[in-house]
What does this fold into?
Amino acid sequence: MNAPLEDELGDILEKARDGKGWSEEDLARAAEVPVAAIRRMERYEIAPSDDEARRLAHALDLDYPSLLAIARGEWSPQPVSADPAPFDMVCLDLLMGSYPVKCYLVSCRATGATALIDTAGNPRAVIERARSLGVTPRMILLTHAHADHAGGLGALDKEFGCPAWIGPDEPRPSGSRDLRVLKDGQTLPLGELAITALFTPGHTAGGVTYRLGESLFSGDCLFAGSMGRANASWPGLFHSVTTRLLSFPGPFRIYPGHGPATTVAEEKRHNPFFCGKVPA
Ligand SMILES: [Fe+2]
It folds into this structure.
């Protein structure tokens, strides 16, 4: 098995309820599962029986086999293979306080040109890692403005002196002396390669996914086997995942801000929110 999933069954139930605008009592009525049991499932205290999982999945428009596999702890994505495009990628598995978060250093293999995707809110660790790798990011690409993704820009700006990019509908994080606003579909050169900004709102109003080669750096839009929290718009987030992220070919890698990497194919087959909702 791969790394533990970011979201457990309890998170999935809560996010699916959020999509319906349902309380725990509403779900209890719709699925004919006691509300006390639903509360304990959402607190990770108990797992549903197979029959309860089936009724919960049906009520919440989730894929039952996928939900059951996650409820039983039987699924996590296969480790992803290296992207065939000529770049190197280093995933920094960091902590902001006690909260695990990932950011990424990507470098054009031919020229060494490097970008930092998100900050993990931990600039000291990012700077140390960049120094140890012998790379100097020439741009910072922010998926969104939450502190665990965009915090620490001041220290990074001082160290690297490079622009930071963000979506136009996102709050402006502090610390960068050269904060630039993206257009949807905009490409940014990375040595001999190009990174494309794809707007994927929903978790936040101005969320951005970055595509490099056959890899998608998706922030908190999608987690393996789940979706992000829809702080801005649940239908908007669902739309972003189904029409943007999962519109890429199956082998495309998805690197979220939390939890293990996955692929478009894995999520189409095993994500309870999206299995059966997008063309195979
Ligand atoms: Fe976030």
